[in-house]
Write the C-alpha cells for this entry.
Amino acid sequence: MALARSLLAGEPGAFDRFVETYRPKIFQYTYLMCGHREDAEEVAQETLLRVFEKLDQLREPERMKAWVFRIARNACFMKRRKSTFAPTHELSLDELMPTFRGDGEERKLEIADWSSLPDDQAIRSQLQRLLRKTIQELPDIYRAVILLRDMEELSTQETAEVLDITEDTVKTRLHRARLAVRKKLDHYLRGGNGEPQ
Amino acid sequence: MKASDCKEVFALLSQYLDRELPDDICQEIDSHIADCPPCIQFVESLKKSIELCRECAPAEEPSPLPEPARARLQAAYEKALAERRKAEG
C-alpha cells in the first residue's frame, strides 16, 4: 500500500519501483493465462499502460493490487477474444477425492507420505516445476482463481472483484483447483510421473 | 466414523484452512479430524500443496523493458498524475 500511495503522490522513484515490482507479477499472470510468452509480454505491457492511463481513477490505494489484476484480467480477456481457445470444462469434486482402502478403524487413504517434504529441497524444486505445469494445464476458470488466491495471495473478496464472480464461486473453484494440484503432486510423490491417474 | 464423514470434511477443507467457515462448523471439523488419521494425513497433504503454491517463484521473467516502451509508460503516468492534481485543485 505504501508503494500505491507513493505512486499516486508522484514521489521520486515510485514509477520505477512500481514497474519493477508489478511487471513480473503481471507477466506471471498473463503468461499462465495466455499460455504463450509473446502474447503474455504484449498483454503485460498493455496492462501496465492501462494502469498508468487510468491511475487517476484509482480511488482506494489499499486496493491497488486487485485493481491492477482486474486490468490484467480484462487485457487477457480481450486478447483471447482475438484468438481461438478451448471451452472450459468443470472439475468434478468426486474425481479429485482420494481413495480409501478398508473400512472402519482399519480404513486408510491411498496417498503419499507428505510429512518429510519440507526437508527435501531437491524434491521441492521438482514439485515446483510440476506444480507450475499443473496450474498451466488447469481449465481457465480454476487457473485464474488459484493464481490470484494462492500465488498472489489476494483475498477471496478481491479475487471475486477481479474476476467478476461471487465469493462462493471463488471458494468452490479454489478448492477444486487446490485438490487437482494436490492430486497431481501426490501421484508424483508416490512414484508416478505427474500425469493423471 | 465412516469414509463418507471424511469426504464431507474433505469437501470443506479449503474454507477450513482459510478460516472462512462459521465457528460451529470449524469445531465439528476439528473434532472429527482429531480422531481421524486419514483426515490428518489428507489435511497435511493439502496444506503442503498450498504452501508449495505460495512459494512458487515465476518460471520465467519478462524480457527487459525496451526503452521506448518504458518512455510510453512514464508519459502515461505523468499525464495521469497531472490530471489527478488538476482534479484535486
In short: Chain A has a mean pLDDT of 88. The beta strands of chain A are 100-101, 108-109. The two ends of chain A are 44 Å apart (CA to CA).
